[in-house]
């Protein structure tokens, strides 16, 4: 009678990589719904087409690297990358923009560095920044949201925009930040009054979009997919910066904390981008530093930088710093240090 | 109400305790053969003190006292003393004493201690050692070695571990439910030895019956406190339990005693009672048999050395294909390769999972640094960093990240979504680091020896050289003394002359010497003339020099002749003159 000899532990928890990735995909749903509501079907077309490209690129890369294709495709990591990138891209982006962005994310930013788990930079953000630098015109072509434009394009218009860009009549509008930058010296209230499309304190729709991503993020926190440290630290740092420079009114103030928290990619970045475990700091203390650094950078780039797309740049810069942060934020291991004190709070 | 502290991390695996915690402890049958490995605990092992063929009775000591002793669990005949498979992760063989049981269970007369309070801590410790008591919780540390002796009263807190946090296992639970009084009696003995200021009995809140039993047993006692706390794995780890109950941490690499804490398992406490109050050595223990491959699961009071197959048979074991036999629980238990392995002092559970009950691990995927492992680690390590360093064999970083503080509880492996067998990496890395350190130590030792040898040889050579130089100096000095003019031949001649002179001891000495000199100068003159005659005159310089030499010698000869004739002048001056002449000749 032969017995099977394996090492402990013999029990395994319910979590698996595909479940983690699947949960992340699920959690993007509220945000995607909000985006679709305000910007139309272009968001969905982006995600679906981008997803197909991602799966193809992933398979190709795995084949070239002589690795098993099926188990890796099943971990959904490629889909997560492409979905996050496609959410960040302007809806009604032409197909080639998606193709370039997604394939760069998967092939270069992920597989060239060794594949899942080895990439030092967030692949979605690498793809995004490559597009931003290479195709600034297409990348800044955002449709006016519902409430500013009369209606949002439907599915057919979205497909047309994607696969036959020349025939699609794109409309664009300035962002509140641009407006503030271009109109220094005015009171924000006057500015908003003169530009009703920005709503009360940020662009129309963006509050809802950010709130929806916040909801998805809270779901992930509840599910224990990541810890609160990085998002909370980033949002706090961003709020603090805004609070310091906010003067309650003039357009030179750089915007209120609330404006920064609920505009642009703030919540999306805080809960879906900077929480990417592979390219962030590994310890909870490290994630606090990592998040704070991103918050600071987001504010700085938004208010002082030339590109309005602060989150992507901030994340990539912080990715550079992650190993360094790790080195200096090792948690205090049991039995080292506080041994004799006898007091113990809730250990972070 | 006592404050309960929490420790970092931990997990909540399915407990599955109800599989085995119904029904009372059953007495396992005496098998036809008992196999007692000499090593059932940590530390040195004793040597057998019995011979094959010897008849033994229950309670009889089978080994000497050079290590923790073993006793015969029942009567029989020593069948063999040989290598047998033992319950160890490596599937290794080790020396065992085999008893062929006669099933009559005749015992030697036991010698209980009438009043343990009259014995000193050292005496009680000795008794426990001689009764072969080792920790029954899992590690098997000889109990007496953990106890403070007569001179040491530094223990402030005695903790009795009734936590049993591993899923499936219920042996301590059963013991606490049925033998609470015996455990408490054992705790009294331990307390008498350690003289703690407080005694805490820690039980996880998933054992309501055990808690109730202790509440009843401790109802009128002020000296012991029952502490219950939320169920979480690995609360039963010694360090974690100490943290839960006291908030203190055992310093890395140190023992609980260093912070005034002594921790003992409830099973150990019961064994202490048996050893002192009944005089009965440790020859049996309560073992859980559980898992879906055993249909008649439960807790058995089983004799040490009982082959597991015998015990499993009593639990109606029906093995399946790819059957696993796990000694211990699903988190830290080791799989065994052989059903014949015996139950030993640390066998708290035999787990035989049915098909699909504890699914075999899925193939490992890439680490995505999700950090769930760090969230689960009770030692507050960064398991995924350790994993990368382990794969890179970066021993320096492994130690920097405190690899050796890993308690191998398996919580990280449990939560890893990529199914990476993290604990396995740490075990292997610990072994590799230890091996490298041993290698380094050996290399250092060899290098030191080599360097010492080099140094010694250099020193000897230097000494030899110094001696040689000294001898040379002495010889030179002597030669210089003896021949102030530096001509050893001259010196030798002079010594000979001196001897001659000493022998002659006549008053006409001086003149004799002068005459001899005269004869020499005459010879020299003759030679110089010869040379001059032989000269072909090709080099005028040489010719003139030879002529000059002949002239000088002639004049010197004339001087000497004058001196001898007049017995006046100074020989020294003549000497120096003759020296100059000889130099000229040489030229």
Automatic annotation (TrEMBL), chain A:
Its EC number is 7.-.-.-. The keyword Transmembrane applies. It is an enzyme of class 7 (translocase). One of its GO terms (biological process) is transmembrane transport. Its cofactor is FMN. The modification FMN phosphoryl threonine is found at residue 175. One of its GO terms (cellular component) is plasma membrane. It is a multi-pass membrane protein. Belongs to the NqrB/RnfD family. HAMAP family: RsxD_RnfD. Part of a membrane-bound complex that couples electron transfer with translocation of ions across the membrane. The complex is composed of six subunits: RnfA, RnfB, RnfC, RnfD, RnfE and RnfG. This is Ion-translocating oxidoreductase complex subunit D. The lineage of its organism: Bacteria, Pseudomonadati, Pseudomonadota, Gammaproteobacteria, Cellvibrionales.
Automatic annotation (TrEMBL), chain B:
It comes from Congregibacter litoralis KT71. It is a peripheral membrane protein. Residues 447-479 form a coiled coil. Belongs to the 4Fe4S bacterial-type ferredoxin family. RnfC subfamily. Binds 2 [4Fe-4S] clusters per subunit. GO terms for cellular component: plasma membrane. Keywords: 4Fe-4S, Cell inner membrane, Cell membrane, Coiled coil, Electron transport, Iron, Iron-sulfur, Membrane, Metal-binding, Repeat, Translocase, Transport. One of its GO terms (molecular function) is metal ion binding. This is Ion-translocating oxidoreductase complex subunit C. Residues 561-587 are annotated as: Disordered. Part of a membrane-bound complex that couples electron transfer with translocation of ions across the membrane. Its EC number is 7.-.-.-. Its cofactor is [4Fe-4S] cluster. The complex is composed of six subunits: RnfA, RnfB, RnfC, RnfD, RnfE and RnfG. The keyword Membrane applies. InterPro entries: 4Fe4S_Fe-S-bd, 4Fe4S_Fe_S_CS, Ion_transpt_RnfC/RsxC, Nuo51_FMN-bd, Nuo51_FMN-bd_sf, RnfC_N. Residues 577-587 have a biased composition (Acidic residues). Residues 357-387, 397-426 form the 4Fe-4S ferredoxin-type domain. [4Fe-4S] cluster 2 binds at residues 377, 406, 409, 412. GO terms for biological process: electron transport chain. It is found in: Cell inner membrane. [4Fe-4S] cluster 1 binds at residues 367, 370, 373, 416. The gene is rnfC. The keyword Transcription regulation does not apply.
